[in-house]
Design brief:
two-stranded antiparallel sheet; binds iron/sulfur cluster; 440 residues; globular; 3 domains
Length: 440
Amino acid sequence: MAVQWIIVGIYALLVVVPAFLPPPARTAHIWTNLTLFAQFVFWGIWWPFVLVSMVMVGRLWCGVMCPEGALSETASRHGRGRSAPAWVKWKMWPFVAFVLTTVYGQMLSVYQYPKPALLILGGSTVAAIWIGYMYGRNKRIWCKYLCPVHGVFGLLSKLSPLHYRVDRAAWDDSTKPVARLNCAPIVPIRTMQGASTCHMCGRCAGFRDAVALSRRTPGSEIVHVAGSQTKPWETWLIVFGLLGVAAGAFHWASSPYYIAGKQAAAEWLVDKGVMWPITGHVPWWVLTNYPDLNDVMSPLDGAMLLTYLTFVALVFGGAIMVFLASAGRLLARPLGGATLGAVWRQRTHHLAQALIPIAGSIVFLGLLATTTSILKADGIRLTFMPTVENTVMAAAALWSVALAWRICGLYAGSRTRQIAATTLMLGAIGAGALAWALPY
Ligand code: SF4
């Protein structure tokens, strides 16, 4: 609890105060200016390494350190205590909230300026507190259903070598008097098989002599658990959210396709005599608008940004889905009472899980590019970064191939079919890598 409240204090300081300070002088540095320091801490360290922590230790960040989770749970302790309504439990929220936040963040240049950071991060915190106040008692309804990154964190934590393992037999045989246990993200602990919904808070450790922090083979949850708990929203998040919208969001500004498209649209508008989309300004909370810093997005810029992100998501996400569905079809046969279509869908969703390493690495590398550019602006050049980026991407792609091979092996029935399905998966993994490499 002490750690959580210290982080809440630091978070509030770094989110709120810079938004009310004057813009940093040209000579300012990370170590001399709070705005630059907060920018570096949030986007250069906090975000990329929270993602890494998911792969290393599961959702420990969520359970022990996240300020929004702590505030939401505290609000729910003193709030109305209502049960969560159907709209809160809508299954597509993890995908929709992630995409909306990513796109809105790009429209406002959230990585560069403190006011958008306050609006987006602070707005999310206010929403978390409100949801906590309204729904649940001592619970984290926000974290379980609505947090814009809970889907991404849940996916990455499936790769973690640590989890809370539940021994079902020991649970059922336990003669200990039933103690009260508050699992804030409302995980059905007795039947819990993986780490993706667990916040690693440790409150259930030792419960009924059946729950223990345990090691496992990294990625084993993806191969052995994810197939029996397929969730279509996870496929949407991996394929169109991370490998589509997020990949585009990290490289749109430097993409020659974006620049060429914008130029062509501008020429067409000039020919038609329609100038307002090129010269118009809108408030900073709609599109980036800092004329004093020579940084303004016109309505045309905004429209082209949305077009580019949609284009990347549809082209790369669409190609990946074709490969996934083809591999899924190869591995599908009518089974028991299940129709061919149902088995095909299950195989396809399970195969999509193999793309988690490459999807996670795209977001990590995108944020690492922010780290590099912030440090570069301060005169610190990390010349080894291209090597790091290529190594991370190659390792993630190999990990995805290994997972695809193992998943295909579960259903193939023959080595030839396993090789054929894995070959199709190479197409999906290659398309994912290409989405990242597009501007290069
Ligand atoms: S399952 Fe246990 S460790 Fe995980 S969030 Fe619930 S109480 Fe905490």
